[in-house]
Amino acid sequence: MDESKGREGNAAEVKQLISFLVGAEEYGLEVLRVKEVIRLRQITWLPKAPSCVKGIINLRGDVIPIVDLRERFGLAAQQQTAMTRVIVVEVEGTHVGMVVDSASQVLRVPVDQFERPPMMIGEGAKDFVKEVAKLGDRLIIMIDVDRILSTKMMSQIADSLQVAEREPVLGTA
Fold first, then answer.
1. What is the 3-class SS of the chain, one letter each residue?
2. 8 Å CB contact between 55 and 164
3. Domains of the chain, with CATH numbers?
4. What are 48-74's pLDDT values in tens digits?
5. Is the CA virtual torsion 63, 158, 168, 88 positive or negative?
6. Is the pTM of this model over 0.85?
Protein backbone atom coordinates (compact mmCIF):
# COMPACT_ATOMS: atom_id res chain seq x y z
CA MET A 1 0.00 0.00 0.00
CA ASP A 2 1.29 3.46 -0.90
CA GLU A 3 1.72 5.46 2.34
CA SER A 4 1.31 8.82 0.62
CA LYS A 5 -2.18 7.83 -0.55
CA GLY A 6 -3.06 6.87 3.02
CA ARG A 7 -1.93 10.26 4.29
CA GLU A 8 -3.78 12.10 1.53
CA GLY A 9 -6.91 10.10 2.32
CA ASN A 10 -6.69 11.13 5.98
CA ALA A 11 -6.15 14.79 5.07
CA ALA A 12 -9.35 14.70 2.98
CA GLU A 13 -11.39 13.12 5.80
CA VAL A 14 -13.28 15.56 7.97
CA LYS A 15 -15.32 15.45 11.14
CA GLN A 16 -18.38 17.62 11.42
CA LEU A 17 -18.88 19.25 14.77
CA ILE A 18 -21.12 21.84 16.32
CA SER A 19 -19.26 24.50 18.23
CA PHE A 20 -20.68 26.21 21.30
CA LEU A 21 -19.60 28.45 24.16
CA VAL A 22 -19.71 27.73 27.86
CA GLY A 23 -18.12 30.61 29.72
CA ALA A 24 -15.19 31.97 27.73
CA GLU A 25 -14.28 28.65 26.13
CA GLU A 26 -15.30 27.16 22.81
CA TYR A 27 -16.36 23.53 22.89
CA GLY A 28 -17.34 21.06 20.22
CA LEU A 29 -19.49 17.99 19.88
CA GLU A 30 -19.69 15.66 16.90
CA VAL A 31 -22.79 16.51 14.86
CA LEU A 32 -23.83 12.86 14.81
CA ARG A 33 -24.42 13.04 18.58
CA VAL A 34 -26.69 16.10 18.31
CA LYS A 35 -30.42 15.54 17.85
CA GLU A 36 -31.27 19.25 17.68
CA VAL A 37 -30.44 22.70 19.01
CA ILE A 38 -33.31 24.71 20.49
CA ARG A 39 -33.90 27.94 22.36
CA LEU A 40 -34.21 27.65 26.11
CA ARG A 41 -37.81 27.38 27.23
CA GLN A 42 -39.54 27.19 30.59
CA ILE A 43 -38.01 24.48 32.73
CA THR A 44 -40.09 22.55 35.25
CA TRP A 45 -38.21 21.86 38.48
CA LEU A 46 -37.41 18.21 39.12
CA PRO A 47 -37.27 17.06 42.76
CA LYS A 48 -34.22 15.18 44.04
CA ALA A 49 -32.23 15.66 40.82
CA PRO A 50 -28.47 16.35 40.80
CA SER A 51 -27.78 20.08 41.22
CA CYS A 52 -26.67 20.56 37.61
CA VAL A 53 -30.00 19.13 36.39
CA LYS A 54 -32.19 22.21 36.21
CA GLY A 55 -35.38 20.29 35.54
CA ILE A 56 -37.35 19.02 32.57
CA ILE A 57 -38.98 20.45 29.47
CA ASN A 58 -41.72 19.24 27.17
CA LEU A 59 -40.28 18.95 23.68
CA ARG A 60 -43.06 17.98 21.25
CA GLY A 61 -44.57 15.60 23.79
CA ASP A 62 -41.27 14.15 25.07
CA VAL A 63 -40.02 14.90 28.58
CA ILE A 64 -36.37 15.98 28.31
CA PRO A 65 -34.10 16.48 31.36
CA ILE A 66 -32.04 19.69 31.18
CA VAL A 67 -28.41 19.77 32.39
CA ASP A 68 -26.64 23.12 32.87
CA LEU A 69 -23.12 22.69 31.45
CA ARG A 70 -21.88 25.83 33.27
CA GLU A 71 -22.64 24.15 36.58
CA ARG A 72 -21.44 20.74 35.38
CA PHE A 73 -18.10 22.33 34.45
CA GLY A 74 -17.86 24.11 37.82
CA LEU A 75 -18.44 27.64 36.45
CA ALA A 76 -20.45 30.39 38.11
CA ALA A 77 -24.11 30.63 37.17
CA GLN A 78 -25.03 33.20 34.58
CA GLN A 79 -28.33 34.75 33.57
CA GLN A 80 -29.74 33.24 30.39
CA THR A 81 -29.67 35.50 27.34
CA ALA A 82 -31.22 35.51 23.88
CA MET A 83 -28.14 33.50 22.79
CA THR A 84 -28.63 30.69 25.36
CA ARG A 85 -29.33 27.38 23.67
CA VAL A 86 -30.13 23.80 24.57
CA ILE A 87 -28.26 21.09 22.67
CA VAL A 88 -30.30 17.89 22.73
CA VAL A 89 -28.26 14.68 22.63
CA GLU A 90 -29.01 11.02 23.22
CA VAL A 91 -27.20 9.27 26.06
CA GLU A 92 -27.96 5.71 27.07
CA GLY A 93 -31.21 5.77 25.11
CA THR A 94 -32.46 8.97 26.75
CA HIS A 95 -32.69 12.41 25.19
CA VAL A 96 -31.01 15.04 27.37
CA GLY A 97 -30.73 18.79 26.85
CA MET A 98 -27.48 20.57 27.69
CA VAL A 99 -27.76 24.31 28.36
CA VAL A 100 -24.91 26.27 26.73
CA ASP A 101 -24.25 30.01 26.58
CA SER A 102 -24.50 29.98 22.78
CA ALA A 103 -24.30 27.53 19.90
CA SER A 104 -22.23 28.86 17.03
CA GLN A 105 -22.02 26.82 13.89
CA VAL A 106 -21.38 23.49 12.28
CA LEU A 107 -17.71 23.14 11.36
CA ARG A 108 -15.91 20.70 9.10
CA VAL A 109 -12.50 19.94 10.55
CA PRO A 110 -9.91 17.68 8.88
CA VAL A 111 -9.23 14.63 11.07
CA ASP A 112 -5.52 15.45 11.11
CA GLN A 113 -6.35 18.65 13.04
CA PHE A 114 -7.46 16.72 16.14
CA GLU A 115 -5.09 15.91 19.00
CA ARG A 116 -5.38 14.14 22.29
CA PRO A 117 -5.73 16.55 25.21
CA PRO A 118 -2.53 17.47 27.05
CA MET A 119 -1.59 15.10 29.85
CA MET A 120 -1.31 18.02 32.27
CA ILE A 121 -5.00 18.99 32.29
CA GLY A 122 -6.76 18.79 35.65
CA GLU A 123 -8.41 15.63 36.97
CA GLY A 124 -11.95 16.92 36.44
CA ALA A 125 -11.25 18.05 32.88
CA LYS A 126 -9.93 14.60 31.92
CA ASP A 127 -13.43 13.26 32.47
CA PHE A 128 -14.94 15.65 29.93
CA VAL A 129 -12.31 16.30 27.27
CA LYS A 130 -12.17 13.83 24.40
CA GLU A 131 -9.74 15.66 22.10
CA VAL A 132 -8.81 19.14 20.92
CA ALA A 133 -9.48 20.46 17.42
CA LYS A 134 -7.06 23.03 15.97
CA LEU A 135 -8.48 25.60 13.54
CA GLY A 136 -5.73 28.13 12.89
CA ASP A 137 -5.29 29.98 16.20
CA ARG A 138 -8.57 28.58 17.58
CA LEU A 139 -8.69 25.55 19.83
CA ILE A 140 -12.02 23.77 20.19
CA ILE A 141 -12.33 21.44 23.15
CA MET A 142 -14.20 18.34 22.04
CA ILE A 143 -16.32 17.04 24.90
CA ASP A 144 -17.15 13.45 25.72
CA VAL A 145 -20.91 13.66 26.22
CA ASP A 146 -21.08 10.08 27.56
CA ARG A 147 -18.76 11.02 30.42
CA ILE A 148 -20.34 14.42 31.13
CA LEU A 149 -23.69 12.70 31.36
CA SER A 150 -22.38 9.61 33.13
CA THR A 151 -24.28 6.43 33.92
CA LYS A 152 -24.51 7.56 37.55
CA MET A 153 -26.01 10.91 36.56
CA MET A 154 -28.43 9.30 34.10
CA SER A 155 -29.53 6.93 36.87
CA GLN A 156 -30.11 9.89 39.22
CA ILE A 157 -32.15 11.63 36.51
CA ALA A 158 -34.24 8.49 35.99
CA ASP A 159 -34.84 8.25 39.75
CA SER A 160 -35.86 11.93 39.84
CA LEU A 161 -38.29 11.39 36.97
CA GLN A 162 -39.87 8.50 38.90
CA VAL A 163 -40.18 10.70 42.01
CA ALA A 164 -41.78 13.43 39.89
CA GLU A 165 -44.37 10.96 38.60
CA ARG A 166 -45.32 10.05 42.19
CA GLU A 167 -45.11 13.52 43.78
CA PRO A 168 -46.62 16.80 42.61
CA VAL A 169 -44.07 19.21 41.15
CA LEU A 170 -43.78 22.24 43.41
CA GLY A 171 -42.53 24.88 41.03
CA THR A 172 -40.56 25.83 37.97
CA ALA A 173 -36.98 26.93 37.59
1. CCHHHHHHHHHHCEEEEEEEEECCEEEEEEHHHEEEEEECCCCECCCCCCCCEEEEEEECCEEEEEEEHHHHCCCCCCCCCCCCEEEEEEECCEEEEEEECEEEEEEEEEHHHEECCCCCCCHHHHHHEEEEEEECCEEEEEECHHHHCCHHHHHHHHHHHHHHHHCCCCCEC
2. no
3. 13-166 (2.40.50.180)
4. 888 889 999 999 999 999 999 999 888
5. negative
6. no
